[in-house]
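Same chain as my last thread, 325 residues:
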Amino acid sequence: MEQETKMETESKIKDVTDLPGVGPASIEKLAAAGFNDLLSIAVATPSEIVGATELSEPTAKKIIAIARANLKMEFETGHEVAKRRERVIRIQTGSKELDKLFGGGVETGGITEVYGQYGSGKSQLAHTLAVRCQLAPEKGGAAGMAVFIDTEGTFRPERIKEIAEAAGIEPEVALQNIRVARAFNSDHQMLLAEKIEGLIKEQGLPIRVLIVDSLTAHFRAEYVGRGTLADRQQKINKHMHALAKLANVHNVAVYVTNQVMAKPDTFFGDPTEAIGGHIVAHNSTYRIYLRRGKKGTRVAKMIDSPCSAEDEAIFSLGVAGIQDA
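reply #2:
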């Protein structure tokens, strides 16, 4: 009888606030640490929960077990995955060649990392996506809104207006459909990313594109020297996991730009390498390298993709944003 009552109690758990033995103060601490739904708790370790909330280890183990019992955490068929993939939207860039490289456009539900030297077109693509995601699906958009986390002061409203006018969108409407926040340090950047779920859930905004321009600038400036490398990578890893979860759960196209560095030990080929190492690389669904081409063009090279071949596309930058060369 006691076992039945326990199972009945566990089956009623639908939210973090329903977990037994977790008070309001602990719930706030869980949310601040990124544990704001049952899934994030179910996949956590007891030590992570204890460190975030100061709950006892037995209590942490208990709420993790209850969260897992209330979620379907089993295998599924490839057919079920294929059905779920049908909700993916591909947002066109304005360049047919670049869209072809992406397999039809920048994909929702994953992270697209674009890296390259200054002036290679990373921020221009960001502005273009912020506008073109507002177009109807039949016009290559997602009929949604964009969030722009600006870490380097690159967001330009006047650029949005130019791209919107060329795309057939009222410039003021286009600006109204973009939420912009300036991040002043890495912690602020991570906090802003966590707040996006509130825009979707609480305010009901149809966010379809999240732009972080740039992903690694603050981390690179704040963590200097080899002694801080482990801490920096750990924070970037946590940030990337939060972005990946947002993309997957809410079908958002996460577009992040990344800085580069030169490898002095490279004697042949391009010495340019993206910041963030394997942590950023492994957490990105698509990796694109941008560089300047001939006669003012830009070249995009697919570095990593789960389904696209390693290929290149040539495009140019204009008043309309991204366009074919």
